[in-house]
What does this fold into?
Amino acid sequence: MSYAIRQTYINHRTGESWTRILKRRWKTLRGAEKSAQAFYRWVTMPDGKTRTEESHAEVVIIPECPGNKRNGLS
It folds into this structure.
């Protein structure tokens, strides 16, 4: 079993939003959580009150496929 990060980005000025699952995989839940917190969870507030951009990240479990034991992908 491996872990991946699902990132959701929202731009409040333009209305743009997207969601992606990162290609990188982590072997441990703790490692994935640390990376999500450090790199993929952030908010931009230029005036200190109004959010203009934000990014949320959550850790998802990637089950192993029988065809590929190395990284859990087929």
In short: The mean pLDDT is 87. Helices lie at 29-40. Strands lie at 2-11, 17-21, 42-44, 53-62.
